[in-house]
Predict the structure.
Amino acid sequence: MIRRLVIAILGLALLGGAGFWFLTNPALLPPPALPDAYQPDLANGEYVFYAGGCSSCHAAPGAKGEAKKLLVGGLSLKTDFGTFHVPNITPDPNTGIGGWSAADFVTAMTRGVSPAGEHYYPAFPYTSYQRMKVADLIDLKAFLDTLPAATSEVPAHELGFPFNIRRGLGLWKLVYLDGRPFEPDARLGEVANRGAYLVSGPGHCSECHSPRDPLGGIDRGRAFSGAPSPEGDGRVPNITPDPTGIGDWSEKDIVDALKTGFTPEFDSFGGSMVAVQENMAHLSDTDLAAIAAYLKSLPAIPSAPAPAAAQGG
Amino acid sequence: MKLRYVAAAAALAGILGTVGAIAADNPIETRKGVMKSIGAAIKATAPMVKGEAEYDAVKAELAMRVVANGAAAAPHLFPAGSETGGDTEASPKIWEDMAGFKAKADTFAADANAAVASAAGGLDAFKGGFMKLTGNCKDCHEAFRIKKQ
């Protein structure tokens, strides 16, 4: 009897292990197909570089001006799950991504899987980048290849159990990564849909402006309604058209803010939004207006009340 | 002539003295008020720079003087003991790096004084002074402010 029980338990454990192994396979979700013959458009790649704000995280901390194009990494992101260290994505073949093919890059950006076949942690916002057009991604990689290379060794992420088991991210991805490209919303016009693409794909705005659930996935029902700062203290503002968000901003106010870094009341942007805004300022007036049109089309969601401990006194 | 300078200097000393006294009393509320007055001054001037309103040199100079006074007061508005409370959005980094913070405040004050001086030179001259000045806002807020709402 006991022997049969032991066998049954072992069998279940084996099955569970096999199930875990199957479900967490980084190759479970196949990457999007690449076009057969494609000549990368470097000018568009540079544009996508600014739309995506790669330098906000990948430039050396505190870098300004031209130094923002040296994407050596090194920024530390302290989160509830541990500390992530942003990697080198310069064209350096050893410590950067110079040795990557366009296919490697597309797989990393849309599936969160490295060329070595390992899961990336979602601190790298591939849940947004999966919506990007393959052509934009190939153009971006071609542009990144033109930027200066540098060698830098970035420390390994410092995560506690169970978050330090990379393979386990496969389970997280089952819930939070669907692999679908951007689909225009039939209820929105062409302009707002262009804005939706920029916001939800390269711009990855919801990664900071949306609250997250306890597993670190974006709370889609409350998207863009503001969130505790991922850097710890403080809050990231609500950017829905609610009175607690930016409901009293006009589309022009939004465009002006992204261009100049000033709110309609002439408070200035601060914190990590400064780097984001300085990248967004490179976008065309048409695209900034598209972003504004999309933000104004979002459902108005009131900000969550601040937790009592965070209130001043 | 000399007398007018003396009177102006005395008045200015009075203003700074008042700011000092209020700041000592409630630095968090004082600095919030100073920041708001700077924002209002920029708001009053920006339409002229953007070409949405006619340029008025007197208005521009007056607004820039408000900013310059705020900038001069800024290093005194973050005394030890005012790190927390009152929903302050001041980052602890101000006190961790007071020298770095004061260096930024000095640049801000110098750019604000240059903007005051540029107002009399016409719109194009003022644009230069204004743009250089307003770059200070996010430069300092990037490093030293934590948004709370």
